[in-house]
Design brief:
Length: 207
């Protein structure tokens, strides 16, 4: 395969561009070690050696590092690795490794996310949050069905009232400024404006 270009990324690393393969990134010392030069051929044998001895190990270490401080979805890991110039093949290799040892699990992530956000955000807001993190519609709907039983779950109005109570909202004494502040807060949480207006104007019934 022909090396068409070698571009510096920073002081230590460079991107190697091939004629018919995805680019790879190596440290400059590694480039010298394998005698890689723009305009010259790189044998399949050497490329395979680079993949097996360097890049596969590196992409696994990077993927594990991304999970060191926080749980992430599969899509988030893919996006981060892609930004690190790892090829599609290497990213899939890392993802398979993480799944094999249960380092990532989108269903588990969705369950924890819903558990954390329930009572603080609307269902719509939670659902949108999961979609933005790359959780599939299928997994989202399955996990939602597990968490939300229509006969038992707190409704949207009850969630709004719970948040207002937590924020010590005074229904009788709130002026327009206070109402607008709470309206903006609840709307950003993903609640429907119709539900918000109703709750702000109608105090909950005493139990």
């Amino acid at each position: 395969m022909t090396v068409t270009e070698i571009t510096s990324i920073d002081k230590k690393r460079s991107k190697i561009v091939f004629e018919q393969k995805e680019p790879i990134v190596l440290y400059n010392g590694e480039i010298r070690r394998f005698q890689i030069e723009a305009g010259k051929e790189l044998s399949d044998k050497v490329f395979f050696q680079i993949q097996e001895e360097i890049l596969k190990k590196r992409v696994k270490e990077r993927a594990l590092y991304l999970l060191k401080s926080m749980d992430r979805t599969e899509e988030e890991i893919r996006t981060k690795l892609k930004k690190g110039y790892y090829s599609t093949e290497l990213i899939s290799y890392a993802i398979d490794f993480l799944k094999e040892y249960s380092y990532i699990d989108d269903r588990r992530y969705a369950e924890n996310y819903i558990r954390t956000c329930t009572g603080r955000k609307s269902r719509k807001n939670i659902q949108q949050g999961l979609y933005l993190k790359g959780i599939s519609k299928e997994i989202t709907e399955e996990v939602f069905a597990m968490f939300y039983d229509k006969t038992e779950d707190m409704g949207e109005k009850e969630m709004i009232y719970a948040l207002l109570k937590k924020r010590r909202y005074q229904f009788e004494d709130a002026d327009r400024k206070e109402q607008n502040r709470e309206m903006g807060f609840l709307f950003r949480k993903g609640f429907e404006m119709e539900e918000i207006l109703y709750c702000l104007k109608n105090p909950p019934e005493e139990e």
